């Protein structure tokens, strides 16, 4: 099941939305990643739930969109 389009429209990157309401728009990639258009942090969607944690976004920030795994790995512990 893909993420709900309405949810996607209201979600913003938690880092960038602090700067401006217009910042932090997200792009859905591979149905399981939300990529911030402003800072390029990448948030995984696990079990259809977007994990909008800055730590998660930071973890994938340097990873190219093309290099993101098709299934988000479990969080590091
Ligand atoms: Zn951002």
Short description:
The protein is of the alpha+beta class.
What bound compounds does this protein have? zinc ion
**Strand coverage percent:** 15-25%
Main sheet: which strands, in order across? 1-2-3-4
Number of domains: 1
What is Rg? 11 Å
The percent of residues in helical segments reads 10-25%
DSSP summary: helix tally = 2
Characteristic key phrases:
binds zinc ion; 77 residues; four-stranded antiparallel β-sheet; N-terminal domain of TfIIb; alpha+beta
Structure description:
This protein has a single domain, classed as N-terminal domain of TfIIb, CATH 2.20.25. The protein has helices at residues 5-10, 54-59; strands at 26-29, 33-36, 42-46, 49-50. By secondary structure, the protein is of the alpha+beta class. The structure holds zinc ion. Zinc ion is lined by residues 13, 15-16, 24, 36, 38-39, 41. Zinc ion (ZN) binds at residues 13, 15-16, 24, 36, 38-39, 41.
Question: How do the helices and strands line up, and which of them pair or pack?
Answer:
Blueprint: H1 5-10, E1 26-29, E2 33-36, E3 42-46, E4 49-50, H2 54-59
Antiparallel strand pairs: 1-2, 2-3, 3-4
Zinc ion (ZN) is lined by residues 13, 15-16, 24, 36, 38-39, 41.
């Amino acid at each position: 099941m893909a993420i709900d389009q309405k949810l996607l429209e209201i979600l913003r990157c938690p880092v960038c939305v602090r700067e401006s309401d217009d910042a932090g728009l997200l792009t859905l990639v591979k149905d399981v990643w939300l990529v911030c258009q402003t800072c390029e942090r990448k948030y995984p969607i696990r079990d259809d739930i977007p994990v909008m944690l800055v730590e998660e976004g930071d973890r994938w920030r340097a990873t190219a969109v093309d290099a993101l795994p098709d299934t988000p790995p479990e969080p590091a512990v």
